[in-house]
Amino acid sequence: MLLLTGGAGFIGANFVLDWFKSNDEPIVNVDKLTYAGNLGTLRSLQGDARHIFSRTDICDAAAVQALFEQHKPRAVVHFAAESHVDRSIHGPGAFVQTNVVGTFTMLEAARQYWQGLPDDERRAFRFLHVSTDEVYGSLEPADPPFSETTPYQPNSPYSASKAGSDHLARAYFHTYGLPVLTTNCSNNYGPYQFPEKLIPLTIANALAGKPLPIYGDGSNVRDWLYVGDHCAAIREVLARGKPGEVYNVGGWNEQSNLDVVHLLCDLLQARRPKAQGSYRDQITFVTDRPGHDRRYAIDARKIERELGWRPAQTFQTGFAATVDWYLANQEWVADVMSGDYLKWVETNYQER
Ligand code: NAD
Ligand code: TYD
What we know:
lyase; dTDP_Gluc_deHydtase; NAD(P)-bd_dom; 13 helices; binds thymidine-5'-diphosphate; EC 4.2.1.46
């Protein structure tokens, strides 16, 4: 049994769906269902006894402890977080609460449970903490990519709260011997990503004939990884990673935001041509994000050397698959783009 947190969100849900394609080990999926959590993503698992869903806040220590006692997991895969940088600028409190206090609560409940396990189960237990490359700060164009030993220099409330959670995860290994593994991954894209993030937002706005907002001049660089590749990396680290170690996960795929949006426009144009002009005409440059990190890039040689993982998708194949998925799943997109989503669009874009 795996105890997984945040499995109704983008990456967690992809992980759950991928897991059951090749594995019958059950998962208890612990998610508070914030605006970013969507059970519709997991509809195909309805009635599947392998998937147990629990609507629980990871900051609720008693509830989390009860889940450990009830389900007796052999491992935790911890995805749950507040994950959007722009939201962290408008409301950092929720990020400190879920990312720092929530991770602490998970680690503490895991430690209590793990200490009571018989020797062989205690040795085999794993706590995999899923984190981000944003904890390393921002690179200049000529800097080498982030490695596992790059000093932490988080710049946003989001990355600072994730950095805090990474430090706690590290401390639980060093202080208590809890078998913690940490992954720091670059920007993900793919099916079921909430349309507040650049790629799904661009696809949704392009199809709706709305402006495609580019912060600043569009030259900020991100290292894009297909979500299925990230999930494969997490499975490898869970199976064969060494407790106490950190693994950087990236796509070897640095792109400027403008290049990303251009490619998405061109993929859409080829599939659903606009009657007049091109989707690129909808690009609108808007006021930059405060403290906007210039460049992220991951040196993913350690996970390749030690665990044999490399991304399977390229920029071209992964982006084409993603555009195809969004075109084929407009209902999912329409479902999540209501209520709270509309309020967010007003908050983030009206004053830019
Ligand atoms: P997401 O925002 O799509 O999903 C987060 C999920 O966590 C949601 O289902 C939400 O309901 C749940 N959640 C939030 N607060 C909770 C709480 N207090 N208790 C229980 N559940 C709660 O995020 P994502 O993009 O899937 O990211 C998952 C993890 O991967 C995060 O830890 C994030 O920092 C990390 N990460 C994301 C990326 C990326 O590009 N998206 C890249 C690297 C690392
Ligand atoms: P995002 O998807 O929010 O991920 P992150 O900030 O975690 O990297 O943004 C990716 C990049 O796209 C980032 O440089 C900010 C930029 N961006 C825009 O230019 N316009 C937008 O509307 C959004 C949401 C992001």
